[in-house]
Amino acid sequence: MVIKIGRAQESLPQITEILQKGGVVALPTDTVYGLAVDGTNRDAVKKLFGVKQRKDKPFTFFIPRGEMKKYAVVVKRRIIDFFVPGPLTVVMRKRAGVSLPFIEDRIGVRIPQHDFVIQLLNAFGKPLAVTSANISGAPTLTSPYDIVEHFTQVELVVDGGVLYSMPSTVLDLTTTPPTVMRKGLVPVLGIEKVYGRKVMLKGSLKFNVLFVCSGNTCRSPMAEGIFRTLIERKYYEAKSAGTIAIGGLPAAHYAKQVVKEYAGSIHHHQTTSLDKEIVDWADLILVMEYKHYETVLEISPGAVVKTFLLREYKRKTKYNEVPDPVGRDLLAYRHAAIKMYPTLKRAAKDIEGRFRRRR
Fold it and tell me: Which residues contact 253 (CB under 8 A, 6 or more apart)?
C-alpha cells in the first residue's frame, strides 16, 4: 500500500497500528527512504534484519526528542542541540536498565528534519528501529514504487517523492573527541565548527580534498600533485577541478615540471570540470581565487563551511590569492607553487591529526 505524503497525517492511526502489530513501514526522511519497525518489539526488529538481509549490525533508532534521555546517556549537547533534528546519527551510551532488542551498550539515535516523521514519532511514542531502504550492500532505493517492487514484506509506503541524497553522517559521541563513523550529509568541517575543535575519523575512512582553479591545467593540479607528496596515502583522497575547464586535457608542461621538482607527478592528469557531484564528494575545498570560491557556492551553497581560499586556510589573512601562471614562464609556475606550499603542508598535517588520536 502506498500513501501520498499529503495524506500521511490523516493516516497516522493506520500507520501506528501496523507498527504496533510488528509490521514494516517505509518512510521518507530528510535524506533517503527508511524501513521502520517498532524498535521495542524483538520479533519486529528480527524481521527487519531479514528484510535487510543483514546479520548483526544494529539499526539506527528514531526516538522522539523528549524521550532521548530515557534511552541514551546524552553527552556533547552542543552537537546534539545544533544538528538534531537533522541528517546526523549520533552514537551514545545506552542508558542502564533500558532494554532494546539487539542493543548492548551503545545506541545510534537520529531524528530526521522531516515534519511527517516527527509527527509519527510523537504519535507512536516509542523508538523506531530504522534502516535505509535497500538490501545490505546494494544502492538505496529512491522511489516509493521501487520499494514496493523490491520489498514485498513492507506493508505500507509513505510516498514522499523521489529522494536523491547522501545518507546521514554517523558520529560516535562516546569518544573524545567524537569520531566520524560514516561520512554523509553533514560535513566533517561543519561538525568541527560547532564542536569547536577537530573530530576524529574512523580508520577505514578517508578525508577528501578538492583543489579548484580555472582551467585545471596549472594551479589546482600542481596543488594536488604536491599535496600527495606530503601525506600518507591511507589518510586521504585528492582531486582537482576547474571552474571553466574543458575535460580531458593534460596538465601544463611547466606544471608537470614543477611538481616533479617537489618529488611528485601529474603526468597522468586530465582536466575535470567542477560540478555538484565533486563538490559534494569533498570534505575540504581549497580554491585559488575568490571567483572560484563564489563559483563553488553557486553550485552548492551548503559547501560554505568547507571551502577556503587556499592561502587563507588556517590563517588570519584575507583575500590572499594564488597568482595564475598560465601563459607565463617556468619561474611563474615555481612562484605559484611556493605560494601554495605552506598551506599544503599545513593541510596535510591537519588531516593526519584526524586519524591519530592523542595519547
Answer: none
Task: Name the pTM for this structure.
Answer: 0.91
CATH superfamily of 2-182: DHBP synthase (3.90.870.10)
Q: Grid coordinates representing 234?
A: 591511507
Any idea which of 60-74, 244-258, 287-301 has the lowest mean pLDDT?
60-74
The residue among 158, 161, 163 whose CA lies nearest residue 8 is: 158
Architecture of domain 206-352: 3-Layer(aba) Sandwich (3.40)
Q: How far is CA 166 from CA 110, 198, 236, 342, in A?
A: 15, 22, 20, 33
pLDDT tens track for 167-186: 899 999 999 999 999 999 99
pLDDT of residue 353: 93
CA distance 176 to 291: 38
Instruction: Report the C-alpha gap between 35 and 131 in whole angstroms.
Output: 5
Distance CA 160, CA 280 (A): 23
User: What's 273's DSSP letter?
Assistant: B
